[in-house]
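Anyone have tokens for SAM-dependent methyltransferase? Sequence:
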Amino acid sequence: MRTAQELITEATTADVDGWGFGFLDGRATEERPTWGYAGQLARAVAAAEVAIDLDTGGGEVLARCPQLATEQHATEGWPPNAARARHLLGPRGVEVHEVLTGTPIPLPDGAADLVTSRHPVRPDWAEIARVLAPGGQYLAQHVGPESAFSLIERFVGPTTDQQRRGRHPDDEVSAAEAAGLEVVELRTARLRMEFFDVGAVVWILRKCVWWVPGFEIDRYREQLLALDEIIRREGAFVAHSTRHLIRARRR
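Reply: yep, here.
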């Protein structure tokens, strides 16, 4: 294996735009949920008249669907990702809206029969309910509580009970129902993650900037070198992610 510094330097300059994870091929793994979100998404959009995919990233997940809705929209708040999504989805007739998280969904009341999202930043349940027609469906895979916390805590220290409670599926169900949605399916999973070199850790922390806010190599060099030692000794650093599938409909 290359030295820690070589791995760190490579990961520091690698591209992190979009929502692809090709840099991690052979360097990290994450177990996938059994429910197969991509397949469920493909079936849902193919049957929809008007659909919108929230926080689409670079459009990579939506682009894998063989058939899209008759009128397909997507939103993304980070300009480099929005540009990638337009390049990838625009030729297929998708209107990509560049909107910040927390701003209104750019559709009229009751305009959509389907709203989807894979790992939304922060679902706005009132807005989701507003744009859905009666009987319209919300289908999404969310990041759950304490996801990758054993890695995150290596950098930020112990987390609070409130932080560990964040994104809890029970809380999201309550919020969705309060907004006028009926949750018809909820499935949860705890999934094994493995990092096989410290460069993979650096890259994921650069990409998922909310994991360790203000992450910088010099600031966290000691922690990175400690992780490098663990990986060389044990073969991998193991963490766990959590995910939940949520399907709801507008009452």
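The longest strand covers residues 181-195.
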